Amino acid sequence: MLYHLLYPLATDIRLFNVFKYLTFRTIYAMITALLVSFFIGPWVIRKLEALQARQVIRTDGPESHLKKQGTPTMGGVLILAATIIPTLLWADLTNNYVWIALFVIVGYGVIGFIDDYKKVVEKNPKGLTPRQKMFWQVLVAAAAATALYVMPGYSEEIFFPFFKRLHPDLGPFYIAFATLVVVGASNAVNLTDGLDGLAIGPVSINAATYMIFAYIVGNFKLASYLQIPYVAGTGELAILCGAMVGAGLGFLWYNSYPAEVFMGDVGSLSLGGGLGILSVLTKQEFLLVIVGGVFVVEALSVIFQVGSYKYRGKRIFRMAPIHHHFELKGVAEPKIIVRFWIISIILALVAISTLKLR
Q1: Which of 20, 95, 249, 352 has the fewest Cβ atoms surrounding its Cβ within 10 A?
Q2: How far is residue 248 from each of residues 107, 174, 300, measured CA to CA in Å?
C-alpha cells in the first residue's frame, strides 16, 4: 500500500524515489514486522490467556516440560499478523508471486488455527484428524502449484545445486513436485516446534537466506552472472522474506526460553508452508534440504523412529523428534536450542556458497 501510495509521488518529490528500491522496502518491511510484534504481542498473549488457549503437555515426554503446562499457545497468529501487514504495506501488490506466497501462508495458518482451536479452546484432544489436516494441506499447496503451472511464462524446470546444466522440465508433474515440497516443509517445521525458540530461530535464518535468493533470482544481471535461473518478478518476494525474518525475531522476543507463548500449529504450519512455497517460487527447492537441514533431520528422526519400532520392535532414539532425544540424554534445553541455531547458520552459509559452486 505504501509502495503504491508514495512511489508515484517520486515524480514531484525525489525523496519518494527510495520506494522503488527492493533493499529499502525489504529493510523497512523487517522493521515494520518487529514493531508490529512489539506493539501487539502483549495484547495477543492476553487474548490467548482469556481464551484459555493453553498448551497441554504430553505426560510421556521429558519431565522438564511439565512446568510448561498452561503456557499460552496459538501465538502463531502474532507471526501471521507481523508477516502479512508489512508485506501489504511495502510490497508491489500487482506481483502475482507475492499473492501466491501469501495464499499458502494464510491457508496453512487457517488449517493450523482450526486444529489448535479445537485442541486447546474446545478441549477436543484430536483436533483435526491427520487425514483431514493432510487433505487441506495438499489442497492449498496444489492450488498454488496449479496457479504457477498455468501462469504464462513460468517454467516447470527444476534446478539442482552444484549442477548448472541439470534442469529437467517436469511438465504437468511439476504440480505434484511443488505440492510435495510445500507440504513436506510445513510438516517438518511443525515437528521441530518442541522447545522454546527451537523452530522460530531456524525459520528466521531460512527466511533470511531465501531473502537473498529471491533478490538474486529476480535480478537478471546477478542471475546470469551466477548462472542460476532468472524468474522475473521474484525479487519482490525479498520483502515477504524480510517480513518473515522480522516477524520471527519479534516472536522470539516472547518465545525465547522460558517461553511466554508458543506458536502452535497456526505458526509452525504457516511458516513451514511459507518456506516451502518460497523455495518453489525462487526455483531453489533442493537447496531447502540444505538450508533447512535442521527441519529435515527432525522429520527423518520421526520417520526412522516409527519405522524401526514398527518393523524391528526397537527404537533408534530415546524419543523422537531428535531434540527430545538430546533432552533425555541430559543436555539442557537452552543448549540444544542454541546449538540447533548455530547448525542452521552453518547450513545457510553452505547453501549461499552454492551460488558460486556450479
Answers
A1: 20
A2: 18, 30, 24
- Peptide bond before residue 258 is cis, with ω within 30 degrees of 0: yes
Residue 76: all three cell numbers together: 502463531
CA–CA distance, 218 with 209 (Å, rounded to integer): 14
Residues 55, 70 contacting (CB under 8 angstroms): yes
Q: If you write DSSP's letter for every residue of 28-70 in order, what string do you get?
A: HHHHHHHHHHHHHHHHHHHHHHHTT-BPPPPTTS-GGGGGGTT
What pLDDT, on the 0 to 100 scale, is given for residue 249?
A: 97
Q: Phi, psi at residue 194, to the nearest 5°?
A: -135, -10
Write down the H helix ranges in 51-121.
76-90, 96-116
DSSP reduced 3-state for 72: strand
Burial of 7 (0-12, 13-18, 19+ CB in 10 A): middle
For the chain (358 residues), the mean pLDDT of every run of 10, in chain order, is: 69 74 94 97 94 74 71 94 97 96 98 94 85 96 96 87 80 96 97 92 97 96 90 95 98 93 95 97 94 95 91 88 91 94 97 84
Number of H helices, E strands in the chain: 14, 0
Which cell numbers hold the place of 51?
481464551
Count the neighbouring beta carbons within 10 Å of the beta carbon of residue 36: 22
C-beta separation of 187 from 272 below 8 A: yes
| Angle (nearest 5°) at CA 72 between 70 and 75 | 155
The residues with which 169 forms a beta bridge, in sequence order, are: 157
Domain ranges of the chain: 22-54+63-288
Q: What count of other Cβ atoms lies within 10 Å of the Cβ of residue 8? A: 11
How would you label 111-142 residue by residue, b for 16+ Cβ within 10 Å and e otherwise? bbbbbbbebbeeeeeebbeeeebeebbeebbb
pTM for this one? Answer: 0.94
285 to 107, 177, 344: CA distances (angstroms): 20, 10, 17
